[in-house]
Design brief:
The complex is a heterodimer of chains A (about 140) and B (about 140). Chain A is built from four helices and five strands, in the order E-H-H-H-H-E-E-E-E. Chain A has helices at about 25-35, 45-50, 60-75, 75-80, and strands at about 20, 85-90, 100-110, 115-125, 130-140. The chains are: A alpha+beta (about 140), B alpha+beta (about 140).
Chain lengths: ~140, ~140
């Protein structure tokens, strides 16, 4: 699989190619049925309107997958085995939102015999507001 | 079901073990929900030709069985309405394969109040049937009461 990025070629400050996704009510419904998360805040507009969120919101669990997709696409095994994600949900996501997952290389280091690339990660909405912020790491075995 | 309150959760408390089967049906629906069509997850012929030697499951799928409602379920209790998922950490340590039967061990790693909000941290370690740890989730909700 030569499509994956190597540790050596990453440059501090470099932005990875973003992943762009549209959130829909159908995707939310599918997600909550599989996660058995029946909180009506995700599916019932009448209920959701009466909460402080004033409308349906997507589960944070669902949207963080877009950041993982970006890391999987670029790093393969260095993400699947050795990946770390540390994020905060800072703004709600609504059905219809257009979301962009971004990652920027902020550090490269050696730890426990592995090469570690550290990223600042964001999920932004169509108004360029952060909905998720945090950091991620991919771990590359040495001599690979 | 009775609601589980912040005061019912004790730091260090171990929740009952859970098992979860990653069936093809679960995986298909999950991939549709996250809108991820990576052939490594869906196309066995393709995946066989890669260094993974067969399909894998995206490790972030851990999020579907380490939810607050999932980890509380074996206690036969439910979360109070208004719970907010504030932050999340994952470490991925082993490949996840379709058909894996997973064992999930969860503890209440921490609980604290900050700026008038009640936070809980659940740590869930996930093992495959060979006993290999495939990952760890730290899930931190704001508890409503």
């Amino acid at each position: 699989m030569s499509c994956y990025r190597t540790f050596e070629e990453l440059i501090i400050g470099e932005e990875l190619t973003p992943v762009i996704k549209k959130m829909t009510q159908e995707k939310i419904n599918r997600y909550v049925s599989i996660a058995e998360d029946y909180n009506p805040i995700h599916t019932d507009e009448e209920f959701a309107k009466k909460t402080p969120f004033k409308g349906i919101i997507a589960p944070g669990y669902q949207t963080m997958a877009y950041i993982s997709e970006l890391m999987s696409r670029d790093f393969g095994n260095a993400w699947y085995v050795g990946g770390k994600l540390d994020i905060r949900m800072v703004k709600v996501v609504r059905p219809g939102d257009l979301l962009t997952a971004r990652a920027k290389v902020v550090d490269k280091k050696e730890e426990d015999g592995k090469n570690i690339a550290v990223f600042e990660v964001h999920l932004k909405n169509q108004d360029n507001e952060d909905v998720i912020i945090g950091s991620a790491e991919a771990a590359f075995p040495k001599n690979n | 079901m009775k609601e589980i309150l912040y005061d019912d959760l004790i730091k260090g408390m171990q929740l009952p073990d859970m098992t979860y089967a990653l069936t093809d049906d679960v995986i298909d629906k999950y991939l549709e929900a996250i809108d991820d069509l990576n052939p490594l997850y869906i196309d066995e012929d393709y995946a066989k030709k890669t260094s993974f030697n067969g399909r894998i499951v995206p490790p972030i799928s851990m999020a579907i069985y380490s939810t607050v409602s999932s980890v509380i379920k074996p206690l036969k209790q439910k979360t109070p309405p208004g719970l907010i998922h504030a932050s999340q950490k994952f470490e991925f340590t082993g490949l996840v394969r379709p058909g894996d039967e997973l064992l999930i061990k969860t503890i209440v790693e921490d609980k604290y109040e900050k700026k008038g909000r009640k936070y809980v941290v659940f740590k869930s370690e996930v093992f495959n049937k060979d006993g290999q740890k495939i990952g760890t989730s730290w899930l931190s909700p704001i508890w409503p009461k």
